[in-house]
Every structure is written in structure tokens, then in C-alpha cells.
Amino acid sequence: MRRISVVALITFAAAIGAAGKSQPLNVKLGLWEVTTTITTASDLPIPAGLLERLSPEQRARVEERMEARKGDSGKTTVRKQCLTREQLDHGIPFAQHKKSCIRTVLTSSATKLEMRVKCVDQGINSDETFHIEAVTFESVKGSFDVSPTEGGDNTTKSNSTFTARWIGPLCTPTK
Fold first, then answer.
1. d(CA 15, CA 142)
2. Does residue 134 come out as left (phi exceeding 0), alpha (psi in the -120 to 50 range) or beta?
3. Would you tell me how many other CB atoms lie within 10 Å of the CB of residue 42?
4. Domain residues of the chain, as ranges?
5. Which residues pair with 82 in a beta bridge?
6. Contact at 8 Å (CB) between 81 and 34?
7. What is the pLDDT of residues 1-28, one digit of tens each?
8. Residue among 160, 169, 156, 166 at smallest CA distance from 37
9. For residue 151, is it left (φ>0), alpha (ψ between -120 and 50) or beta?
10. pLDDT in tens, 115-167
11. Neighbouring-strand partners of residue 170
12. How many Å apart are CA 145 and CA 61, to the nearest integer?
């Protein structure tokens, strides 16, 4: 009886340890073509008090970005992206790299990944949720939602969908 309890305890401890690790998507590494469509975008509000805290240069960049986003609803972009082992294991696969983000994996398997990402960019905080599905080793689809969190104004969101297809194993230095 004591032996069964020890085996059960070891099995339970191993299961808890495995639950804390995320499993990377089972997709090929290398060059991918990523097609993204912004399905809903409205004018993201500039949080109260934010503009006053920014330098004139930062304020100009924020205002420029907000103006550029006004026409993004329904816009589709296609880009090439190199997917590395490091990005697949510890980054945000198929998303543009952001240095100032904290990633929390909610669920992960060889075919599905869901994560929440908190970012700070140009003085604006945001919550992002990514849903990624590996349809095959060479085909991925997903969505992501972005919500501003600065100043308590969480009412405006940007929602996007994407598909990605594997092009080949080698990435060029400029990709």
C-alpha cells in the first residue's frame, strides 16, 4: 500500500511539472508567408492623461500611428517571416516581434496555442490574446485581439485573423 502511495505521489508531481511547461506547435521552422486581416478596428482611444506624459516626439509618433490605423479595418497584409526554434518555444509565433511584452501561455499542445500577452509600446499598455492552430505541419491559422489597458479604457478593441503557409527551410538575412 505504501509503495502505491509513493508511486501515485511521484506520478502526481510529474504531472504538475509537465502542466507548467508549454508544448510548442508542431510546425516546420523556416520561412513562412503570413497573411493578416484586421476584421474589426475602431479608433483606439488615447488614454486619459497619456498625451500629457509623453515627450513631443513620442506624442507625434502616437498621433501618427492612430491616424494611420483609421483606415485599417478590413485591410489585408502579407509578409514573410522567419520562424525559429527560439520564437516557437519562447516567443509569439507568427506575430511581429515585440521586445516589451510578457507572455503567459494559457493552453498549448502540438496543434493549438492560446496565450495572453501584456505589452508596453510607446507608453501605451495593451492586453493581447492569441489563438493559433497548426492545421498541418506547413499551414497555420489563428486570431488575435488587442485591447488598450492604460487609463482604464478597455472598450475599444482590434481583432485580426491570420493564416500562414510554410515556404521553405531557409530564411534570408533580411527576413
1. 28
2. beta
3. 13
4. 22-168
5. 31
6. yes
7. 444 433 333 333 333 333 346 789 999 9
8. 160
9. left
10. 998 887 766 778 889 999 999 999 999 998 887 765 554 456 778 899 999 99
11. none
12. 22
Residue of 38, 102, 44 whose CA lies nearest to 73 = 38
Distances (CA, A) of 107 to 7, 54, 104: 27, 36, 9
Find out whether 20 and 105 touch, Cβ atoms under 8 Å. Answer: no
Whether this model's pTM surpasses 0.70: no
**DSSP conformation letters of 68-96:** HHTT-TT-EEEEEEEE-HHHHHHS-TTS-
Cell 475602431 belongs to residue: 42
Tally Cβ neighbours within 10 Å of residue 152. Answer: 9
Are 162 and 36 in contact by the 8 Å Cβ rule? The answer is yes
Write down how long the chain is: 175
> For 104-160, what is the HEC assignment?
EEEEECCCEEEEEEEEEECCEEEEEEEEEEEEECCEEEEEEEEEECHHHCCCCCEEE
The C-alpha cell 476584421 sits at 39
At CA 30, angle to CA 83 and CA 133, rounded to 5? 55
How far apart (Å, rounded) are the C-alpha atoms in residues 126 and 128? 6
